[in-house]
Amino acid sequence: MSDKQKFYITTPIYYVNARPHIGHAYTTIVCDAVARRQRMLGKDTFFLTGTDEHGVKIERSATAQGIKPKQLADEVAASFRALWDRMGISYDDFIRTTEERHKRGVQELWKVLKKNGYIYKGSYTGQYCVFDELYVDAAGPGAPCPECGRPTETVSEENYYFKLSAFEDKLLKYYNEHPEFIRPETRRNEVISFVRAGLRDLSISRSTFSWGVPVPGDPKHVMYVWLDALSNYITAIGYGGDKKEQERYAHYWPADVQMIGKEIVRFHCIYWPAFLMAAGLPLPRGIVAHGWLLFEESKMSKSRGNIVRAETILEVLGNDALRYFLMREVVFGGDGSFSFDALVTRYNADLANDLGNLASRTLTMIAKYFRGEIPYPSAAVGRSAADEAIATLGTEVIAGFGAQFDDFQFSRALETAWSLIAAVNKYLVENEPWTLGEKQDQESRARLGTILYTAAEALRIVTALAHPVLPESTARIWRQLGLGDIKKMNPAKLKWGELKIGVKLGTVEPVFPRADKSAIERMQKMEEQRSLAHKEAEKEKTSPQPAGAGAQPGQPATQSATGPAPAAPAPTGAAPAAGDAKISIDDFAKVEMRVGQVKFAEKVKGADKLLRLEVDIGTEVRQVVAGIAKAYDPEKLIGRKVVLVVNLAPRKLRGLESNGMIVAASFGEEGTPVLASFLEDVPVGSRLK
Ligand code: ME8
Predict the structure, then answer these.
(1) Disulfide check for 587: which of 393, 477, 515, 583 has CB 3.0–4.6 Å away?
(2) Distance 226 CA to ligand 1 centre (A)
(3) What percent of the chain has pLDDT over 70?
(4) From residue 416, how far is each of 147, 328, 401, 472, 499 by CA, in Å?
(5) Residue 548 confidence (pLDDT)
(6) How confident is the model at residue 45 (pLDDT cuts 50, 70, 90)?
(7) What predicted TM-score, i.e. pTM, was given to this entire model?
C-alpha cells in the first residue's frame, strides 16, 4: 500500500433498469474531476463507481423486456462502463452487485450485523414502493409513495429486520459532532429532522422474489436491495475478502467523499451509517449530495422520458464541453437546467472565446515574435502597473480556486479561474502586443516580452487549475506551452512567475473550434433518432404480440370510466364477451386521454359522491366534477397524476361545469372507483394511445 495520504471517492452505483443519461454522467463527472485534482495533489486516490443490479425493480424491467435479469444487468452495466471509458472517466474500479466479491462481502456484513444482535425475524405487512425500493410504513393500501408519488404495493411477508430504532440517538449525536458528515447544510437539516421524528426498524429481506443476494443460512430470503447496494462501497475495496483484500479495505476505508443525488440522501445518511455503526465499522467522512439536472423543467429521468444522452454531446462538442458545462452552469447542491442552447452558448463564450482566444492569441504571437520560445519579462524596461495587477490576480486566483473547488463550489471556482482569463484578454486588448510586434526598438521588444510572458503565465495557471474539469483540452494547451505532461503538475505548488523563460512551445493549434447554430439542431435531431432507435430495439426484445393479445378470454378490460355522473355508476368491471362488437382504431383515436395532475380538490356541497377537482393537463387547468368522493379524500388527491378524457363535451353537475372525465376502474357491487395511474412517472399532458 502506498505511503501517500489516501483519498477514496465514490459515486452511487446506478440501477441497470435504464441506460446512462447525462444525469448519471453529472455525478460521475463531478467525482472524476475531484479524483483528478486529488491525484494531482499527490494523494493515493481511489475512485469507485459501478452498477446496482438486484431487486424487484430490475427483475420486473427484465421481464418486461422478455429477458433474464442477469442479461439485462450485463447489457446495461456494459453500457455504463463503455460510456465512462469513452468519456475518459478515471475510475479505479467498477463494482457490480452481481459479482462474487460483492456477494461474499455483503453476506459477511449480514453475519456481523446478526452476531452483534441487530437482526431479528418478524413479519411485515405494509406498503412498498418498487420504484424507490422503499418501505412506506405509515401509508395505507394503495397510497402513493411519499417520495415519487407512484402507487405503493402492499407486501405481507415474514422478513428479517434491522434494529434501526436503536440508532436514533447515536445518529443524532454523530451528526451533531461531525457537521461535515452531510453536505450541504440543507440536506443535513432534513436528515436531522427525519431522524428526530423517530426511526422504525427496517425490513431487510424479501422472500417473494429471488433476484438478490441470499440471506446467509436462510436462502429463501434475499437481502433488501438497499442493504445490498450500500455495501458496495466496502465490498469493492476488499471487505469480506482474503487477507490482502482486507488490507486494501483497511487502507481506503472510510471513504473521504461519497457523492450522491439528493433523492437518495435518506439511504446514505441514515441507513448506511446505522449499518456501519451496527457492524462496528467507521463511517465515511462526508456524504455530499447534489441537486438534479432538469430538462424541460423536470428531473431528467427515463420514466419521464426527458433524457439527454451524453453520446450526442460528445459527438458534436466533445467530452470537455459537457464536463465544463455541467460543472460551471449548475451551482453544485442546487438543481440545474440543461438545454442544448445553453450548452452551445456556454461553450462558445467560455471555451471557444475566452480560453480558446487567450491560448491561440498568446501562443501564436510567441511563435511569431519570439521564435516560439517563452519570452523574458523585462524587470526594468517597459513594465506597467497592469502587469503587476495581473500577477496579483493570478496569485489570488490560485488560492481562491483551490479553496472553492475543495469546498465543492465548482461553479464559483471556475468563475474565479475565468476572471483571470477575462482580465488577461482585456489586458491584451489594452496593451496591443500585435502593434508592438511590428516595431523593432528595444523598448517595444521589452514591453512585448513582458506582455506575452504575463499572458502565457496566466494561461499556464488557468490551464493547470482547470485540468481536472477539462482534462483533454488542458493537456493539449499544456503541451502547446511546451510543458510536457500536465498530470505531473501539483496545483498546491502552483505559483505565479514560475513559467520558465526560453521554453520552446509545442505545435500551436486551435483547441476549441467555435460551434455554429446548426450544432444545436444537430444534437436535437441525434437525440430524437437515438431515442426512436432505442424504442424500436426495446419493442423487438419484448413479445411481438399486439397489445392486449395476451389477455385471457373473459379477462376484464383494465379500465372503465368513472365520469361525472354519480347517478349512473360505471359498469362494474364485467368483461365484454368474446365476439362483442369491436371498434376500429379510428374510433378509439377519437377519445383524447391525457395525463393530468390534481392541483385542487374539494367536496361538492350537498353531494356525497362528488368531488370538484382542478386538474392541470399541461396546456390548461380544467375543472372536473368526479364521482369519487366515497373512495378518495380530497386532500390526498392533490399532486396526484390522473388520466383525463379531455375532449368530452362539457356538462353541468350540481350547477358546476365539468370539463372532462377522470378514468378509473370500477369494481364491486357499489362500483367503487380506483383511479387509473402509472407505475412509471409520466409528464403532465402526455397523451394515452
Ligand atoms: O438511486 N440529475 O440509482 P439510479 C442529477 N441504485 N443526478 C442524477 C439524475 C439527474 N436528473 N439522474 C440520475 C440509484 N442522477 C441507486 C443508488 S447507491 C448505493 C444506490 C444520478 O440509477 C444521481 O447521482 O437511480 C442519483 O443519485 C443517481 O444518479 C441515481 O441513480
Answers:
(1) 583
(2) 13
(3) 92
(4) 37, 11, 6, 21, 21
(5) 30
(6) very high
(7) 0.79
Cα–ligand 1 centroid distance for 130 (angstroms): 15
Quick one: pLDDT at residue 541? 59
Please report the atom of ligand 1 found closest to the CA of residue 295. Answer: 11
The alpha carbon dihedral of 354, 355, 357, 361 has a sign of positive
**Is the pLDDT confidence value at 85 over 50?**
yes
Q: For residue 279, report the distance from its CA to the centre of ligand 1, in Å.
A: 26
> Cα of 15 to ligand 1 centre, how many Å?
8
Is the CB of residue 15 below 6 angstroms from any atom belonging to ligand 1? yes
Cell numbers for 360, please give them: 491561440
Contact 102 CB / ligand 1 (< 6 Å)? no
Average pLDDT over the chain reads 89
Residue 12 CB less than 6 A away from ligand 1: yes
300 C-alpha to ligand 1 centroid (Å):
10
Given a cut of 70, whether residue 594 has pLDDT beyond it is yes
- CA nearest neighbour of 257 among 493, 22, 49, 489: 49
For 202, half-sphere exposure in the C-beta direction (CA atoms, 13 angstrom radius) is: 25
Residue 13 CB–ligand 1 contact under 6 Å: yes
Q: Name the residue of 34, 52, 84, 297 to mutate for ligand 1: max ligand atoms within 8 A of Cβ.
A: 52
Q: How many angstroms separate the CA atoms of 324 and 280, rounded?
A: 40
Give the best-scoring range by mean pLDDT among 118-132, 380-394, 478-492, 568-582.
478-492
Q: Nearest 5°: CA angle at 377, between 455 and 448?
A: 65
The three grid cell numbers given for residue 438, joined into one nine-digit string = 511590428
Which residues, in sequence order, are bridge partners of residue 688?
Answer: 593
| Peptide bond preceding 254 in cis form (omega within 30 of 0) | yes
